[in-house]
Amino acid sequence: MCGVIGITANSEVVGEIYDGLATLQHRGQDAAGVMTFDGAQFHTKRGAGLVRDVIGAADILELTGKIGIGHVRYPTAGSYSPEEAQPFFVNSPLGLGLVHNGNLTNTEKLRRELKKEGRYLNTSSDSEVLLNVFSRELRKQKMATFSLKKLFAAAKKTVERVNGSFAAVILVAGHGILALRDPQGLRPLTIGIRKNSKHDELAVASEDPTFATLGFEKIGDVQPGEAVWLSADGKIARQQLAPKNWAPCIFEYVYLARPDATLDNISVYRSRLRAGEYLAQEIRKAKIQIDVVVPVPDTSRSSALALANELGVRYREGLIKNRYIGRTFIMPTQAKRQKSIRHKLVPLPLELRKKNVLIVDDSIVRGNTSRQIVEMVRSAGAKKVYFAAAAPALKFPCVYGVDMPSKKEFIANKLSTAQIAKKLKADAVFYLPLPDLIRACEFEKTKIPHFCTACFDGKYPTKEVTAKYLASVEKCRECSRHQESDDKQMTLL
Question: What is the pTM of this model?
Fold first, then answer.
C-alpha cells in the first residue's frame, strides 16, 4: 500500500503535488518523493520519512515544471532501503518517471527476463522492474517521436507481462502522464479535472479526497485493466488493455483508505457504518451487558458509532490519540508497533471506570496491540472489557502490497475465538462475518461482482498465487524478520 499522484497543469505543480501527498500520507510513512519535468529536464527529490521531512522549501524552488508525479511509500517485507524510495527514472525512450502502488507477483521472473534483455536494475523494488518492463516494451515500438497509439500498445504488452497489483502513474517527458491499473483493480486509482481558460488541468491520485483539497473535480476511476492518458495540453484518452476481472481489495474499505474516500463508486465511510451495524447483530446474539462503546481511533470510529446506535448504547471517546504518532499497522517492525501503541493511545478513566466496555477496532492481526489496549482499559478501572473487530479474522498474508505477517503469526490461525479472548485478556471477542463485510461494501450504484478477500479466506484472485508461491513468500518474510532482528542487534552494538 502506497499513495501516488500525478498532475499536468498550466503552472508549477510541485506545491500541489506536495499538498496532494500530504492528503495521502496515511497510505505510507516510510518514504516520499516528487519528480517534475520543466520542458528540458527532470527534477527529483526523494528520501526516507514523511513528506514534510523529505521535501523542504529549497526543494520546492528546485522542483520546477508544469507536470509532475509524487509518491508516499509503505514498504513490504524485505524492501526498507531508502534507495527504493520513489519515483524511479529511466532516460530512454523519451524519458520516463514512475510511481507505483501495489506489488508484482512475478517480479523475479521479470527480473531474469530484463537481465537477458540487457537491462540492469539498481534495487530490489518491483516498481523499478515495472518501469523497466514498460520502457522495454516502449522501445520495441520504435517510438523515436511521441505516438499515443504506440504508447498504448506498449502499455498493453506491459499489462500482459506483469502479474499482481499495480496502480501506476508514469510521467512521459514533455508529453503527459499515463495511468495504469491491473485487470483486477486491486489498488485504487482515480481521475480528476480542473477547468481552466487556457486548457483543462488533469490529475490522477490514489484517493479522491486529494482532488477536493486541490480544487479538482473527480470524473471517475481508472478501470481495471485500463490505461488513461492525461496529456500536457489537457486532453484525456482511454483504452481498455485487458478484460476487467474485478477484485478490488476489500481491506481498503476496512482500514487502508480515508473514510471520506469513494473508491470504485463505494463510499468508505458508508461501508464502515454498515459494517458496524452488522457487527452489532453479532454482539446482540451474545446477550451481554454493555455500558459504553469505545473506538480505537481513528479507523474504527465510523463502525463503533453505528454499532452503538444499533445497540442503543452510549458511544464515548475512551481512548485519546496522540496525533503525532503514525499508523501503527504500517510501521515496519513489530518492535516499533509495540512501542508506539503506548505512546499513541491514553485511556480516559472518566469514561471507563466501573463500566462494561466494548472496544471496537478495525481488525485484529497478531493480537499484541489489541492485548495492550485491553490492558489499558482494565487499568483505567473498567469492570469488563469486550473486544470487537469490524472485520473477519485475518488469517492469510497479502501478496498484493500490504505487509501483513506470515501466516503463522496471525493470532486467528492458532487459536479459536474463545482462546483469542483469553490471549487478549478480554471477557469476549467478536468478529464481523465475511459475508457481512462484503454486504457492507456493496453499493447500489456499483457493478463490482467480486472483491479480493484473500487475507480473510485465502482465495487469491490471480492464478499465479499458488501454494508453492505462498510458501516462498512465507520464507521471504521470515528472512526479513531475521534481518530486522539482526539490524536491531547491530544498532545496540
Answer: 0.92
